[in-house]
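Justification of resources, computational component.

The compute hours requested in this renewal are based largely on the per-chain cost of generating structure records like the one below. Each record pairs the submitted sequence with a full structure-token output. That output is archived, and it is also reused by downstream analysis tasks.
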Amino acid sequence: MYAIVDIAGKQFKVEKDRFVYAPSVAGASVEFDRVLLIEDDNGVEVGTPTVGGARVAGTILEHGRGDKVIIFKKKRRKGYKKKQGHRQGYSKIMIDDILLKGQKASKKAKKEEAPQADSPKPEAVQAEAAVADDLKKINGVGPAFEKALNEHGIHTYQQIINLSSEEIEKLTEEVDGVTVEMVQDDWIPQAKELNA
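The structure output for this chain reads:
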């Protein structure tokens, strides 16, 4: 079974349990009602312009941006040239159901995963998040570095101040773009000021 669906003015062929890259869509789950064609066991049903009551339900897996496209304009002998780049945003959408008129979406049972022995308990994670400092206040620490520090268990200024030389070495090896000098000369003094 497949369907042709209109998403943001573009037509896509979609099948259940397959994903499609479509123009950026907001939200965690989406439902498209502009279904132009449906093919199933009963045959092909073509819409005029859409199939009445048909819907396609999906879940957004991730957002991203496509390859860069260069737009270059020039008028010879006029001294005019303009170069511009563009990366089109997209959403990766998993198609959950193709629904005909009157059908309801099937509810997938979500299995509860048992917490692993190595992973911290949810209460501990929430307690850490409650006392976490805004590491982005340190010059040179952006969202990417803050995320990397959080993944290594560093959430507060005090933890940065208490970093040993071995921990700094390990951090610089694992986090791309971080140098020993950056941590020792920039981050630690700033963390001391912010912690005071």
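Residues 153 and 159 are 9 Å apart (CA to CA). Strands lie at 2-7, 10-15, 19-23, 29-32, 35-40, 43-46, 55-65, 69-75, 80-86, 89-99.
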